[in-house]
Specification:
The structure is a homodimer. Chain A is of the alpha/beta class. Chain A is built from ten helices and 14 strands. Chains A, B: InterPro entries: NAD(P)-bd_dom_sf, ODC_Mu_crystall, ODC_N.
Chain lengths: 316, 316
């Protein structure tokens, strides 16, 4: 078994690769077999182990992503979430590689927002508003930059110092972009063509009344029922709401679970997912409408990027 | 993540270690958390991936055993079953080691037979009869040798050539033991103090009428409902029947599932497992009775040997 660190994966596999590989997989979902993920609590609160296996029957390759959640880790300068992906060659049965899964998880989530932005936002979108500048933010930025001619990025974070640190870390890598930190989230929401939310908030991070016609929103933060990042009063105003994975959103996305209960939205009448956008290949928006993409993740997205990264690493 | 090959695990972790570590774990089962295993079919017939996670809450260490089943592998000189074990440190959340799981699986299965033999067979057992000389046989031999003063080993295999190959491979390592291959399994059954079955047979490999009073039998072969290695007409004659894992036997052991349906045995009235033998610490046999141990395996046994092996490898 070959072992690849985060640095090695990062050096060989990039946002454009991830977007391409996920789109390819979405076009051939019949080849994918996965089960519900397994969770074993390992301590107080959210402390747990998550196991997400998935196989590609066509390519005869399988993965499992093994994730540890250690809530008190930040006190010890360690990440809360640590992921590792094991790849098995199903033709020979051999377990061939171990890939650090942290970067790949952030990258596939950024790629999903990129794909949604590509199919759902106005093609002339130039201003990106980012709410939340934590661990997932950079790859969310990259996903949007990959598909739209972004010239300006507005940033809001509850702790403004963290937004400053983020800009200090990324501005040099993107000299063509103007970065501006805002202290009032309303300013960001009113001015942005695309709003990208990546927080762990349990209350809405923006006011639905501030969202202008023609805006596309990506929400990747709420991945537990108690998390409610997006203001769900916006949902009735949206012309299109697309999910990365309907079953996952039903179980995990707090603002949608609440909206369904309150009658602001109905899972029963909902059929739009990213697979439909990509396979049908048409942009689903009118110029002046509001569109929303909600992402919670699923093992087959990890499969797409893990096999893609392995392919690059193995032939490098 | 550190990676250890089969040869490295084998050089540092042995049968006595495995027996000790499994007994220790059986005495502290409250510390163990596991879920049912996940199976994803990956092709025709039994071709599949198996995922068996398990955590030790006390030690704050977790494992997952990832096993590929590739039925046509023997045609290509590769093993049908290939296992890999990933260890996670739950205190830090770090994925710390990858251990080849093939030897550890054989070793823990041999250790389970060793533990059963130790608690259930006559202490003066000197003749061991082995039915089946395939991939699991050597560690089954080692498990019995570890706990009883075996002087003679009788061997039967459907293809006699394979029994000869097995003896040629192991005889030099055990010069104190007399090995004898028999062509009639009845001779083996009538003469043995302990009978150890490790076959994939779908029909009984011995006749219940041949089993003498005072014999102990270990059956490790039937791990699917269609497999029926032991003659279940023997079950009503046994003074004690002990399982490694009751839930697993109910689902997987063909001869017991059939016996329960036919009324030769009742799961409903059955409570003896290896945990009871070890924790209670008493041998459950009378001198002239027939005793049976049935083993199908479970993730917590893999946990015991993986953490034990890691401990040796990491401090070596």
């Amino acid at each position: 078994m070959k072992v690849f660190t985060e640095a090695e994966v990062k050096a060989n596999y990039h946002m454009a690769d991830a977007i391409c590989d996920i789109e390819q997989l979405l076009k051939n979902m019949d080849d994918i077999s996965q089960t519900t993920r397994t969770v074993i609590p390992t301590g107080d609160g959210a402390k747990s182990m998550l196991y997400m296996p998935c196989v590609h029957l066509g390519k005869q390759q399988g993965i499992i992503k093994i994730t540890s959640i250690t809530p008190d880790n930040p006190q010890h300068q360690r990440p809360t979430t640590q992921a590792n992906i094991i790849i098995t060659d199903l033709k020979t049965g051999e377990h061939i590689a171990s890939l650090d899964g942290n970067y790949l998880t952030r990258l596939r989530t950024g790629a999903l927002s990129g794909i949604a932005t590509n199919y759902m936002s106005r093609t002339d979108s130039q201003i990106l508003g980012m709410i939340g500048t934590g661990g997932m933010a950079y790859e969310q930025l990259l996903g949007n930059l990959e598909v739209r001619p972004i010239q300006k990025v507005l940033l809001f974070n509850r702790t403004i110092e963290k937004a400053k640190t983020f800009v200090a870390q990324v501005a040099d890598k993107h000299p063509e972009i103007e970065f501006e930190i805002v202290s009032d989230v309303s300013d960001l929401v009113k001015c942005s063509d695309i709003i990208n939310c990546q927080t762990q908030s349990t209350t809405p991070v923006f006011d639905a009344a501030d969202v202008q016609n023609g805006t596309h929103i990506n929400g990747i933060g709420s991945y537990r029922p108690e998390m409610k990042e997006m203001d769900n009063r916006l949902f009735p105003k949206a012309s299109h709401i697309v999910f990365d994975d309907l079953e996952g959103v039903k179980e995990e996305a707090g603002e949608f679970i609440e909206a369904d209960a309150k009658g602001l939205f109905s899972f029963a009448n909902h059929h739009d997912d990213l697979k439909g956008c990509v396979v049908d290949g048409n942009t689903v928006r009118e110029k002046d409408s509001i569109t929303i993409f909600k992402c919670v993740g699923a093992a087959y997205f990890d499969l797409a990027v893990a096999l893609g990264a392995w392919n690059k690493l193995n032939t490098h």
